[in-house]
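explain this:
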Amino acid sequence: TSIHSLMGNGILSFSYYLESEMNIEDVSLLQEKFSDLHDIIGSQNNEDVINLIENYLSDISRLNFQIGLDAFDDGYEWINSFPLSFKRELKGKVVVLDFFTYCCINCVHILPYLKALEKKYSFTDGLQVIGVHSAKFSNEKLGANISAAAEKNDIKHPIINDSEAQLWSKFSIFCWPTVLVIGPNNKLLFCFVGESLKEYYDLYVSTTISYFEKNDLLLHNNIELPLTIGSNSSHFLFYPGKVNCMVCNMLIVSDSGHHRIVMLSISGKLKHVIGCGSKGLQDGDFENCQFNNPQGVWSDNHNIYVADTGNHALRCASLETMLVTTLFQFGGNKSETPLLFSPWDVIGYPLRDPKCLFIAMAGCHQIWAYAFKDLEIGKLSISAKACISIVGSGKEENRNNRYPHLAGFAQPSGLAVSEPMQSLFVADSESSTIRCISLVDLKVSGVVGGDNDPKNLFAYGDVDSDVSLQVKLQHPMDVSFNVNDGNLYIVDTYNNKVKMVNPIRKSCHTFPAQQALTLNEPSGLAVSPDGSTLWICDTNNHEIKSLNLKDSSFSILKVVVEDNKKCQYILKAAQVERGKPLLVKINVILKEGVQLSSNAPHKWVVSLDDSKWDFQEKKGNLVPGMILQFCPKSQEGSSIIRLYLTLYGCDVKGLCFMKDFHHQIQVYPTDEPVESPLTINNYLTL
């Protein structure tokens, strides 16, 4: 398990803040006893394990590992609670202290296990979980930002803002996450370093509560804590994570806090909501499927691919069938199925007709690839439907290397492909760098930010420069390539800025917005297909902003919600052999229990954006299976054909209904032979 070290180099003396003076040998003895205990419990049956832990607790309780009763009495800022004290509220309780920093993916990974403890044991039962937020980045020291992170991650227990790392120093913590368990006798019992033992929290804490209950040391009083955060349902978007701008100028947004994906026009009209809004892992239709904190989204105009972060899964939403499926997910037969760990971004390659998806695996600090068909990347061969690590050792570091699996990343969070440069660019958030992976040989190199020392993950700041290593960023979370000007655009998330990076010169400068561009931890961005506009996920402001790259003006996208139940929006990309007509076949597929109304006026209407096609009739009666023929006037450039269909159906009881289908077809000319006709399917369902 990768862990962060606040000091960056090595482990400090491992002594805790204790009421009485203790030397390092005593504290080492505690660690040695716990290590010995954990080493042997895996080979024991359940009854023996309980006995071993209870014997350990009996032995430890005789030693003088006393926590100072005034440990929390130094005027700290509290979130989700008034100040708690071992002298009063925490007296007679088992206290679990979670030392964390909200940028840390490993800290996020343990939250479900802490939540499971809280669900199992209430304050009255004798348990209290307390988060101690000891910030890595300066932006994380602000109480408002910690509150937002708690809301984003659904943390309901009290949190202490240890902004100056006083508690961190008093308890001599050396890495995130670290979980301490303190008994009702105010003695330190267990210390879990990193996330590798998170599955054992329940075993140790449950046995501890049972042990002290039997010894009549638990108190079962109750207090009401003033929860200061909660889901804000007044926003249409809630902590949006990523945005993708499709070729057809539709926006795909991961509405992460609402556990769903939304599709918007660039004017803000809502086209699709994908996901029912409740957290879960469920395939199915757009209205009933479930996600868990989805982040990265990318579309090939046929499907939307989703990095379903909280489910450790790669998902696919078909814009034709309006169904969501899981391409790859955590679990299964580990000898055959790799595990996904917090995928944070996803992008296709090649962009127009992808053979694979690249995945930023924030949780295991690697870049992975999912193959649609057999392919080779560098010297790697990937079989169709396989999902494998292609770059990164798994060690959390800022290490560049010509050998892909010797390179190191630190929580990669954003991806961008440059086909002209044959490169994959990575926003490597914890190293505060932008990195480059050659798609020729998978060599990893630095672009801007960071430090020469690959283990130094604290080389952050807010410095623009024309010199690569003099550039300083603070936790950048996304990157996008603009093919028009050859620049990278990044969200420097914890500096609340948009910056422009020249990947050739390796320079970085803050983008000069015309007005004050007020951002709050922006986490995603995307360049429009024509290179004129930057779309930004202003995450903590719950907004999408557009930044005009020509005149530096910006605006807030206002979401317009219309009744879309009677209309289905379908996007397609199509190729047509240069000089030949485009044939479009209209299929109608009836769902079970539905039939096409025989006497109803089924209609089609065509709308053309330009004069590249010769098509005289603009509308007509629709007959299933009919073919429309579009003859080319121009041989160059892509074009858009819009086809509007109106169909009438009836159910088995004779109840009739109308449904509209809006097809937007992006057409590209090619010199290669193309299968014809292009078939568009229309699924008629209630």
